[in-house]
Amino acid sequence: MDYYVLFLRILHIGSGVFWVGSTLVLATTVTPALKGAGETGQKFVDYLVKHKKFGTNSAGAGAMAGIAGLLLYWHDSQGLTSLWMRSSTGIGFGVGAILALIAFIFGVLTDRKLKAMAGLREQLESAPSDERTSQLQILEKQQATYLKICAGTLTLSLWIMAVSRYLVF
User: Fold this and answer.
1) How far apart, in whole angstroms, are the C-alpha atoms of residue 113 and residue 109?
2) Which of 45, 48, 87, 137 is most buried, by the most CB atoms less than 10 A from its CB?
């Protein structure tokens, strides 16, 4: 048994489950619920982002999944030199990795927007202004778009990687 590969698979799948799960829960459950919760929902998100480091933890899991995945790909392709990379399995894992990288980038952008929104809400509490309110609305739209892209590409990556060993073309 190859314990190195076993360790990497456990790390890749375990951290990937956390990353995908946290992203999909945020996109499909938390965000829609917060829209109806008004100011209370905004305070919850601010707390989640600032004190619980939700985005940082999710990005950390994504980074771990990515590093372990790259090491697995390196191992399976014998240092990126084998014909395995051109096989349907190798191509499937490669496409999944590219989609996961796109998701990671948009996940980081989502977290940055959430942090900016939290800071802007603090400013609005101390000194309300129409300009800050409009900035907040712009940030909310950008964050929603980034989160949808992140969740969509991450879901596609998951599906492709889940079936890559069984692809034939």
Assistant:
1) 6
2) 45
